[in-house]
Task: structure prediction
Amino acid sequence: MTMPIAALFQAAAPGSQPHVIPWLVFTLIKLIVVFTVYMVGVALLTLAERKISAWIQDRHGPNRVGKGWLQPAADGVKNFVKEETYPAAANIPLFVLAPALAFIPALVTWAVIPFAAPWDSKWGRIEMVLAPLPVGFLFILAISSLGVYGIVLAGWSSNNKYALLGGLRSSAQMISYEIALGMSTIPVLLLAGNVTLSRIVNQQAFETWNVLNLTIAFFIFLIAAFAETNRLPFDLPEAESELIAGYHSEYSAMKFSLFFIAEYANMVTASALMATLFFGGWDIPFTLWDNVAPFTFLKTFLTLGCFATKVLFFVFLYMWIRWTLPRFRYDQLMSLGWKFLLPLALGYIVAIATTIVTLDALGFARGSVPFHLGLILLNLAAVVILFVLLDRGRVISPAYSRLSRVDVEKLREMSTPRRAAPFLPESGD
Amino acid sequence: MSIGVKVVERPIEQTSYVRATLTGMAHTLKHLFTPEKVTTQYPEQKESISKRWRGTHRMLTTEDGKAKCVACGLCPTVCPANCIKLVPGEDEKGNRYPLVFEIDEFRCIFCGYCQEVCPEEAIHVGRHYENSEYSREGFVYDLERLMAQTHPVCEMWDPADPKGE
Result:
């Protein structure tokens, strides 16, 4: 008995008529190519980070091993031959499992991101995405939540106070910002009316990029993605100056390297998501030529280049911000997530939903110019309110504000031990 | 708030995060594209060192290739670190010369007194800093080694010309 695979394809990617054997072959090829490019790219990003940090600080950066280009290879070889150390009191099975748990979700997320226009080969249409899941975006939300397990388990199983503190911080941080992250994408889904990533890309290609319609949502997504990937200014789980290396203090050799690769892989995935959800994915701007049939190989190639450019820009943004901003204080991190981003995201959903319903009721068709003009006007107003009016000590609380004198006194009382009651000798005997 | 932490209280309308972040990013981007770098590419480029730099020693020689040293014994006497070992000898014409002249560069504090006290201007501290060796024994320089050194020597401070002009 054979599985009715063809029927499943229909369900998974309606509109395409694949033949089973070419589909399998091309999926394998795509898997190998994407995985290879991804891993080599991540390795090169470690070099890019060091180079960018060096240039920002007026230094040269690595330029010895093959003019600097072979530095990632040298680092890889070094990490493979180094000694693997295990802390005496560590929980060994979890200690070994944790790097894999941090690494795999970052890779798996990549499976549903469409990275180029489909290609109409003579064996049928080939979607340039590893797994064209209809529930694409929900899959990403589900998988990206798993990343925190690796870090928390690493922190806990190391049996080290710094690692444990790093793990605790990361669990609090990632869970807090995940809510804002999910909320910020709901306006995108409202506009697209779909959770399939290829549909979201198409909707943006034929209408406008979401970043123009939904700048505030992009802003929230950007901040939450920085927090989710533990990059500065949200690298409290690592916090070199306070926690040595945080959750991976006890890791050595390739297990440490896996955490490092996971960080960069997460960065690339988050950048790809930003590009897909807000910057039109693989869409080439100002032209519809790439979004309509016939899908030639040239179109696939050019859109792939466009997508790579967008992703690399966001990766650069990550590094640029890392070497610009200092780390948040823990209370600032928490109040930014819960008191600012979450209400902002919720309010924005209400505002966008109201606007869409109003514009629909006024009879403007989706995708028409007045419809988007309305959204962009609303957006402009929101940006002005947020960045000009609210950004006066209310986005991030400075060290002194938001705490009245009374509150400061209260906190001081809590932190100083209460004075012991004076010893009174009992009278009477 | 712990003791000694100074909190600058700015008026609320001067504080910002988003705008301040963008200013900071503009600043770092400017540096990113600045071609001038501050790093010295060390083995290829070297920073110039002072004329009065006091590094490892060098024994100057006469024109016929012998050490200028007359084994007067002033340098082991003046040496505060006691790192110079000198055994004097005398040839058939009555000229004194060092039979053994060793400087332990690990004991040396590079004060330069030996150069200052030397009546023949034979022993000098050198303008040199690349001194690595594979063993501790390698840092005891004998006469042959001291004579074989070629690096420039230190110009001692002259009270008559304090700025070295």
Remarks:
- The helical segments of chain B are 18-32, 74-78, 113-117, 143-148.
- The interface with chain A takes residues 1, 7, 9-10, 12-13, 15-19, 21, 24-25, 27-29, 31-34, 36-39, 41 of chain B (CB under 8 Å).
